[in-house]
Design a protein that fits this description.
heterotrimer; A: alpha+beta; OB fold (Dihydrolipoamide Acetyltransferase, E2P); 3-stranded antiparallel sheet; 4 helices; 9 strands; B: alpha/beta; Aspartate Aminotransferase, domain 2; Aspartate Aminotransferase, domain 1; 3 domains; 7-stranded mixed sheet; 12 strands
C-alpha cells in the first residue's frame, strides 16, 4: 500500500498535493484497492465552487459507488477528463495519472487540518 | 436425456426479410394514409424492426423462457422480496374480458364492477394495515414510498411547518427508502442499529428534532427482526412532531398478528406483488397501495374511488389538498384484481395463517442452518433470517457470492445477497409460507453440502455455477463499455 | 389451507427443530399492547370455485361498450400469441434477474425490448421500462434539470393533462418550476415557446406528438428552439404512430418517452401499462432504473446482465438517479412479443389503418349537420368535434346509452375549448362500427 510522504490525506481516503494556493486531489491507493476495478468516474465542472467536505464527484466499480469529498474549499480550476475514457488510471496510478481535480484554495489554512502520511498510515492500521 | 438448447439468437439475428407474424384484417375504408399527413411529419425510413413468422416468434420466446428459473420451478428465497406461489385463479380473474378490455375513461356507470373491486380492496387493505384510507394509484413499492413521503411533506407544509425536511432512515433500510425521500425533496438522515439489530433508541433520540419530517421503518426489519420498541419509537417520533412511515415490504411477517396502524404508523405502503401473491413478471409490474391515518386523508392522490349515497361507485376529484396525481388513471388495476381474488380466497384466518407459516418456515431454516453458518443475530426471527459464511469458509476464500452461484448447481435460486448492508457477506433468506417442508429441507441440505465443499474442495464452489445456461458473466466489461442494444454488439 | 402446504404433523416437527412449543412462541417479542386481539374484519374465505364465480359476477357489472375513446389508452388488435406467450410462468413469475445465470430468458427479452425501442424511436439508448408514460415524462423532466443544472421545465399545454399533473407532482418535491407553453388552434404555440426560452434558464422543453388533442406538432422546430436556448428537447411519443411519423431520433430529441400500452397490452382499466424511456447515449448515466447489457461468460459465451447499476437505488441510495426498483418488465416483454409478431410491415400497417379509419370517422361525423371540427390541423388518430346542440356531457352519456364509449368531454382539461369532445379511432374499429357511431350521433342530434 503506497502512502507518499509529500501528500496530505483525509479520513475518507482522499489525498491532496498542495502547491502554492492550488491543491490537486485524488483517492488513495487504499481506496482504489477497496473499490476494485473502477469502471466510471464522475467529475465536477471547472468553475464549481466547493467547500471542504463537499462531494466533488464519485468513483464507481460494478457493485459500489463512492462519493469523493474535497479536503479543501475553493474553485475547481481543472478536472482530469482523461479519466472519463480510462477510469482504470485510478487503479493503476492513483497518485499520478489518477488525479481527479485541481482546486484553487479559498482558505489554504484548511490544509493544516489534514492528515500527514504518518497519521494516514496510522489510520489505515486502525481500520484494518 | 434430451439436452435443451441453451443458446438462443436475438430477434434481429432470426429476422428474414419478407416474413410476418401477424396479419391485420384488410383495411375496410378507402384512401392512402400518407395523403392525410404533412410530408415533413413522416418518417424518412421504415423502422428497422425484425421480420419473423408466427412460429419463429413462439419458438423464440419459448426457448428463452426455458432459460429462466421461476417460482413454479422451486423455492425462490430472496429476502425482502416475498417470492410466494402465484395462484392461477388470480390470473384467470384479471384476464376476464370485462376487466381486461375496460377503457379507463369510460363513464363510471360502465365501470361499476371495476370500481366496486377497487373500493372494496381499499377497505380490505385499510383493515389489514389498521389505516383509515387507501389509494391504489402507486404502481410499485418505491412509487408508494414516494407517494407516502409526498403526502407527509404536504401535511407539514399545510401546517406551516416548512422546516420539517429530514427523513430518518435506519442503516438497515431498503435502498428505495433514501432514494424515495430524495425524490420527494426530503433530506435523508441515517440512524444506526444497535447490537440487537434494532433501531438504536439513543441514536434515534439524537437525530429527532424540529426538522424531523418522518421516520421510515420496515417492521419486521430487513434482518427479519421485529422492532419490539416500536411503541416507544412511535411516541418519540410523534413527540418530536414527526410522522411514522411503514415500509410494507415485510408485511408477510406480521399480517393478522399486529397492524402498522396499531403500532403507531401514520402512513404505510404495501407491495401487492409481495404479500398479496401477484407475480413479479421478471421485474414488474407491481402495485404499491398507500394507506394513511385520518389526518393525512385529504392529501391522497386524485382521484379517490368513493361510494355515493345512492350506491354508485365514482371517482372523486374534488380534493383541494391532494398532492396531485402520481401516475395516469387509477393504478395497476390488473394487479389489484389479483390481490383482491387472493384476499377473498383466504379470508381473515387464512391471511393470518400466511404470516404464521411464513415465520415458521423462516425459523425452521434458521434452526437447520445455525450450526453450519454464522448468524450475527442468532435468535427467533420473523419472515426471514440473515446468514453469513463461517470464518473457515472465508479463510478458503469462499464468499457469499460463491455460495449463491453454487446453489444454482444444486437447482435452487440464491437468497438475496450482500443485503442488508450492516451484515457483511449477508445471505438473506425468505422462504415464504408456500414452500413445502421437503423443499425447505432440500434447500438447507444444499447449503450444508456447499459448506462442506467450501472446506474440502473450495475451487468447485468458487468456479460455480457449472450447470447453468451461461456461467459467471463479465460484469466489469459490461459496465466499462456498455452494450445496451443489438446495434452495438459488434462481434459479440 | 390454500397455498400453505405444511401439515399439522410437519408443523410439530418444524417447531421441535426450532425448539419452541407452538407457533405463537415465534411472536413472543411482539408487545401485548399492539397485538390484534380479534380476527381482521374481512369477508370469510371462499373456495376457488366461489372466487371464480364472484370475480365473474363483478366483471359482469362492467358494461362492454364499443370504444372510440383514446386519451392515452388505446384499444388495439392484439395478436393471440402475445397473451399466450406471456402466460408462460417462466416469464411472468420470475423475479428481477438478480442471478443472471438462471435469468437469461428475462435478460435477453429485456435487451431485445431496449433494442426494439431504439429501432422504433431512432434514439441511442432505452431503459428496461418505467411505470407508465406520465411517470416516464416526469423522470425526463428531472433528467433535464440534472443535466443542465437548471430548474425550469416548459411543458406544452397540449401534453396529456394527466402527464402534466404527474410532472407537477414530481416537480413540487424537487423545487422545479413548471411553465406551460400556450396552445394555438390545438397545437403548441412555437412563437410563445421562443419567448419563454429567451432567458436561457430552461432545462427542458416537453412536447407530445401526436398531442393530447390528436394534432401533429412541429417537433423538429420545437427541438431546434430548445437547443438554441441550451435546453433539452423532450418528446412524448405514441409508439404506434412511429409506424408512419418521424421518430424522435430523426428530429434530434435528447430524451423521448412514451406510453407503451398500445404495444400488446390490454386496457385493463388503466394499468399495468408501460413507460418507455429513451435518450441520447450522452445521457445514459442519468437514466432512471434498470439497464440490461450484453457481455460474455467465463467460457466466452454471450450473455446478458443488469448493468450500470450504480445509478440505482440499491447501490446509490439517496443519490440514485431515481427511486424506481420494480418496473414493468412483463409489459415490456408484451411489447417485445407484439413488435416481433408485427415486424416492420405490420407496424406500418397498424399506423396506416389508424390514420385511414380515424379520417373516415372524421368525415362521417363532420358530415352530420351541426357537427363541426374544433381544430383544422393534421391529426393521427384522434380528433375533437363540437355540436350546436349537445353538450359534451350529453354526447358522452347519450352515446354510452347506445353502446359506445365516445365523445370524451375536454372542458375539464381545456375550459377554453368548451363544448369540445374527443374521439379516437384505431385499427380495432371496423367501418360498420364507425357507421353505427355516426348513426347514433346523428340520432342524438336529430
Amino acid at each position: 500500500m503506497k502512502v507518499p510522504a509529500d501528500l496530505y490525506y483525509t479520513k475518507t481516503h482522499e489525498w491532496a498535493k498542495v502547491e502554492g494556493n492550488k491543491a490537486r486531489i485524488g483517492i488513495t491507493d487504499h481506496a482504489q484497492e477497496a473499490l476494485g476495478e473502477i469502471v466510471f468516474v464522475e467529475l465536477p465542472q471547472v468553475g464549481d465552487e466547493l467547500s471542504a467536505g463537499d462531494s466533488l464527484g464519485a468513483v464507481e466499480s460494478v457493485k459500489a459507488a463512492s462519493d469523493v469529498y474535497t479536503p479543501v474549499s475553493g474553485k475547481v480550476v481543472a478536472v482530469n477528463e482523461a479519466l472519463l475514457s480510462s477510469p482504470g488510471d485510478i487503479n493503476a496510478d492513483p497518485y499520478g495519472k489518477g488525479w481527479m481535480v485541481e482546486i484553487e484554495m479559498s482558505n489554504p489554512s484548511e490544509v493544516e487540518k489534514l492528515l500527514d502520511a504518518k497519521a494516514y498510515e496510522e489510520l489505515l492500521k486502525e481500520e484494518a | 436425456m434430451i439436452r435443451l438448447r441453451d443458446y438462443e439468437p436475438l430477434l434481429n439475428e432470426l429476422s428474414v426479410p419478407g416474413r410476418r407474424g401477424y396479419y391485420l384484417p384488410e383495411c375496410d375504408v378507402p384512401g392512402k394514409a400518407e395523403d392525410y399527413l404533412p410530408s415533413e411529419a413522416l418518417r424518412k425510413e421504415d423502422a428497422p424492426l425484425p421480420e419473423l413468422s408466427e412460429v419463429d416468434v413462439v419458438r423464440h420466446f419459448s426457448r428463452l423462457s426455458d432459460l429462466n428459473y421461476c417460482i413454479e420451478t422451486g423455492i425462490y428465497p430472496l429476502g425482502s422480496c416475498t417470492m410466494k406461489y402465484n395462484p392461477k385463479i388470480n390470473e384467470y380473474a384479471a384476464s376476464l374480458p370485462e376487466f381486461a378490455n375496460l377503457h379507463p375513461m369510460v363513464p363510471v356507470s360502465a365501470a361499476q364492477g371495476a370500481l366496486e373491486l377497487m373500493y372494496k380492496l381499499q377497505k380490505y387493505l385499510a383493515e389489514i394495515t389498521g389505516m383509515d384510507a387507501v389509494t391504489l394509484q402507486p404502481a410499485a413499492g418505491a412509487h408508494g414510498e414516494y407517494t407516502g413521503l409526498a403526502i407527509i411533506a404536504a401535511y407539514h407544509r399545510s401546517r406551516g411547518d416548512h422546516d420539517r425536511v429530514e427523513v430518518l432512515v435506519p442503516d438497515s433500510a431498503h435502498g428505495t427508502n433514501p432514494a424515495s425521500a430524495a425524490v420527494a425533496g426530503l433530506k435523508v438522515i441515517e440512524i444506526p442499529s444497535d447490537s440487537r439489530g434494532l433501531v438504536d433508541l439513543e441514536g434515534l433520540k439524537a437525530a429527532l428534532g424540529p426538522r424531523t419530517a418522518a421516520l421510515m421503518l420496515t417492521n419486521p426489519n430487513t434482518l427479519g427482526l421485529f422492532e419490539s420498541d416500536i411503541v416507544e419509537i412511535a411516541r418519540l417520533v410523534h413527540e418530536a412532531g414527526g410522522l411514522l412511515y411503514y415500509d410494507g415490504a415485510n408485511l408477510n411477517g406480521t399480517m393478522g398478528v399486529c397492524r402498522p396502524g396499531d403500532m403507531g404508523f401514520d402512513v404505510v405502503h404495501l407491495n401487492l406483488h409481495k404479500t398479496f401473491s401477484t407475480p413479479h413478471g421478471g421485474g414488474g409490474p407491481g402495485s404499491g397501495p398507500v394507506g394513511v391515518k385520518k389526518h393525512l386523508e385529504p392529501f391522497l392522490p386524485v382521484p379517490v374511488v368513493a361510494l355515493s349515497e345512492s350506491g354508485e361507485y365514482y371517482l372523486d376529484y374534488d380534493r383541494p389538498q391532494s398532492i396531485g396525481r402520481v401516475r395516469t388513471f387509477y393504478g395497476n388495476f390488473g394487479v389489484c384484481v389479483k390481490a383482491y381474488a387472493y384476499i377473498r380466497r383466504l379470508g381473515p384466518e387464512g391471511l393470518k395463517r400466511v404470516c404464521e407459516y411464513a415465520v415458521l418456515h423462516a425459523n425452521y431454516i434458521w434452526a437447520r442452518l445455525r450450526e453450519h453458518y454464522r448468524f450475527r443475530y442468532d435468535r427467533i426471527c420473523k419472515h426471514e433470517c440473515v446468514a453469513m459464511p463461517t470464518k473457515e469458509m472465508m479463510d478458503n476464500d469462499v464468499h457469499t457470492k460463491d455460495i449463491a452461484k453454487r446453489l444454482m448447481d444444486y437447482g435452487y435460486h440464491a437468497p438475496t445477497i450482500y443485503f442488508p448492508l450492516i451484515v457483511p457477506e449477508a445471505l438473506m433468506i425468505e422462504p415464504t409460507e408456500t414452500e413445502t417442508l421437503q423443499e425447505l429441507d432440500g434447500f438447507c441440505d444444499a447449503l450444508i453440502a456447499i459448506k462442506k465443499e467450501a472446506l474440502e474442495n473450495p475451487q468447485v464452489v468458487k468456479d460455480a455455477p457449472h450447470n447453468t445456461p451461461v456461467r459467471r458473466l463479465d460484469d466489469v466489461a459490461a459496465a466499462k463499455n456498455p452494450i445496451l442494444n443489438w446495434r452495438k454488439l459488434g462481434n459479440l | 389451507m390454500p397455498y400453505i402446504p405444511t401439515t399439522p404433523e410437519e408443523t410439530r416437527r418444524m417447531l421441535s427443530v426450532i425448539g419452541v412449543e407452538k407457533i405463537e412462541d415465534l411472536f413472543a417479542d411482539i408487545p401485548e399492547e399492539i397485538r390484534l386481539k380479534r380476527p381482521m374484519d374481512l369477508p370469510k374465505p371462499m373456495s376457488e370455485a366461489e372466487v371464480k364465480r364472484h370475480m365473474e359476477e363483478l366483471a359482469n357489472k362492467n358494461k362492454v361498450l364499443i370504444n372510440f375513446i383514446g386519451a392515452g389508452a388505446y384499444e388495439r388488435l392484439i395478436p393471440t400469441i402475445v397473451p399466450y406467450i406471456l402466460s408462460r410462468w417462466e416469464i411472468y413469475s420470475a423475479y428481477t434477474p438478480y442471478q443472471p445465470e438462471v435469468s437469461q430468458g428475462t435478460l435477453q427479452m429485456i435487451f431485445e425490448f431496449q433494442s426494439l425501442m431504439c429501432e422504433l424511436t431512432g434514439m441511442e439508448v432505452a431503459t428496461a421500462s418505467h411505470y407508465d408514460g406520465a411517470t416516464a415524462a416526469a423522470e425526463a423532466a428531472l433528467m433535464s434539470c440534472a443535466d443542465t443544472r437548471k430548474h425550469k421545465v416548459l411543458v406544452s399545454r397540449a401534453v396529456h393533462p394527466q402527464y402534466r399533473d404527474v410532472i407537477r407532482t414530481y416537480a413540487t418535491g424537487q423545487r422545479i418550476e413548471i411553465v406551460e407553453i400556450p396552445i394555438k388552434d390545438g397545437r403548441t404555440d412555437l412563437a410563445e415557446l421562443e419567448k419563454l426560452l429567451a432567458a436561457k434558464d430552461v432545462a427542458g422543453v416537453i412536447l407530445q406528438n401526436p398531442n393530447f388533442l390528436g394534432q401533429i406538432e412541429s417537433m423538429a422546430e420545437a427541438v431546434q428552439l430548445a437547443h438554441k436556448a441550451g435546453a433539452l428537447g423532450i418528446a412524448v411519443f405514441d409508439p404506434i404512430s412511429l409506424g408512419v411519423l418521424a421518430p424522435p431520433g430523426e428530429y434530434d430529441a435528447d430524451i423521448a418517452v412514451g406510453e407503451g400500452q398500445s404495444l400488446g397490452l390490454p386496457l385493463s382499466y388503466g394499468g399495468p401499462y408501460l413507460g418507455i424511456v429513451t435518450s441520447k447515449e450522452r445521457l445514459v448515466r442519468r437514466l432512471p432504473g434498470r439497464l440490461i447489457g450484453a457481455t460474455r461468460d467465463v467460457d466466452g459465451k454471450r450473455g446478458f446482465v443488469m448493468t450500470l447499476a450504480t445509478r440505482e437505488q440499491h447501490i446509490r441510495r439517496e443519490k440514485a438517479t431515481s427511486n424506481i426498483c420494480t418496473n414493468e418488465a412483463l409489459c415490456a416483454t408484451a411489447a417485445t412479443i407484439y413488435l416481433a409478431a408485427l415486424g416492420k410491415e405490420g407496424l406500418k400497417e397498424v399506423a396506416r389503418q389508424c390514420v385511414l379509419k380515424s379520417h373516415y370517422a372524421y368525415e362521417k361525423l363532420t358530415s352530420i349537420p351541426g357537427v363541426t371540427p374544433v381544430f383544422t390541423g393534421p391529426f393521427f388518430c384522434e380528433f375533437a368535434l363540437k355540436t350546436d346542440k349537445l353538450t359534451p356531457k350529453e354526447g358522452y352519456k347519450g352515446l354510452a346509452d347506445k353502446g359506445f364509449a365516445a365523445a370524451l368531454d375536454l372542458t375539464p382539461y381545456y375550459p377554453e375549448y368548451e363544448g369540445a369532445m374527443l374521439f379516437a379511432v384505431t385499427e380495432a374499429r371496423t367501418k360498420a362500427e364507425i357507421d353505427a357511431l355516426a348513426a347514433a350521433m346523428g340520432g342524438l342530434l336529430a
